[in-house]
Specification:
about 300 residues, alpha/beta, five-stranded mixed β-sheet, 11 strands
């Protein structure tokens, strides 16, 4: 049987990602039914335009169209049978977002959907439950992006409630977090978790994965980042300039600036829920998109 390929395009506030996965037809590989064929990440940084200007600039709009044309050709090369392109916080906020998307559809044939924070959260969190050793515990699922932070309370493997806040790494660097947003998040999260004990965090996003690798120099198991280790690392990173972080921690330019506000968000949430560690599975929105595509095609 011919193997199928699925693709996900994730247009975030900091980067655009193309993930392509191939279906393994071997019935003995139920738990590994999808294998990664390729991953491409381009730091287009749309959020710096949107959160400062309220729109996608003409320069970035042209770059995004060129990138979508490239991704279209890559999907053809990999013989992708189905795809979904999703844009998140930056495109939600851009006053010219619809016009940019319409132009891309006309020029490339790629239809970009702007999804809200709750749909974004729902598409991601299902995969992470499968990675947990203790599925009966209480967890706060936290996805920190460039524009938004998505939070889900999970207990006994079930979603209790989803929250979404306009607090993200690029927003913070752009001084575009609205007054009161932090307080709102702290109050709502404290109220939501008041009746739950022993809460820990499932963290996703490029920054928490990088923070984990920086803190876990000895290659420890279980993909857990102790909050105390994150605090120590944050204290080392915070005083440095982005250039110094690039040199001292071998970071790329588009990671060296956003990694500190990401750590601040995770530490703030960990403090509110009194978490001891952050579970760091290596998955994100693109994985959730492909899982949804696979499930849809299996049931049709």
């Amino acid at each position: 049987m011919e193997n199928k390929c699925y693709a996900a395009i994730d247009i975030g506030s900091n980067a655009v990602r193309l993930l392509i996965k191939q279906v393994k037809e071997d019935e003995n590989l139920v738990n590994k039914r999808l294998s990664k064929a390729m991953l491409l990440r381009v730091p287009l940084r749309l959020g710096f335009d949107v959160f400062a200007l309220g729109k996608v600039s003409e320069v970035k709009s042209i770059k995004l169209r060129r990138l979508m044309k490239t991704l279209r050709q890559l999907m053809k090369i990999y013989e992708v049978t189905d795809y979904r392109a999703c844009a998140t916080s930056a495109m939600r906020d851009a006053k010219n977002g619809k016009a940019v998307i319409k132009k891309i559809l006309k020029d490339t044939g790629i239809n970009i959907e702007v999804i809200d924070g709750q749909e974004e959260a729902r598409m991601i969190y299902n995969n992470h439950i499968e990675c947990l050793e203790d599925r009966t515990g209480n967890y706060i699922y936290v996805d920190v992006g460039g524009g938004n932070t998505e939070i889900n309370l999970l207990t006994n493997g079930e979603l209790v409630q989803s929250l979404s806040y306009n607090i993200g790494t690029v927003r913070m660097l752009s001084n575009a977090v609205a007054e009161g947003s932090w307080q709102q998040m702290k109050e709502e999260l404290a109220r939501l978790t008041a009746d739950f004990q022993g809460i820990n965090i499932i963290g996703t996003g490029g920054n928490i994965n990088r923070l984990y690798r920086l803190a876990d120099k000895k290659g420890k198991k279980k993909l857990r980042l102790p909050v105390s280790s994150l605090q120590t690392l944050y204290d080392e990173l915070k005083p440095l300039t982005p250039e110094q972080r690039m040199e001292a921690f071998n970071l790329k330019a588009d990671r060296a600036d956003v990694i500190v506000p990401a750590a601040e968000i995770f530490l703030t949430i960990a403090g509110i829920v009194k978490a001891e560690y952050i579970h760091v599975p290596v998955m994100g929105l693109a994985d959730g998109i492909i899982d949804n595509l696979y499930t849809k095609n299996m049931t049709e």
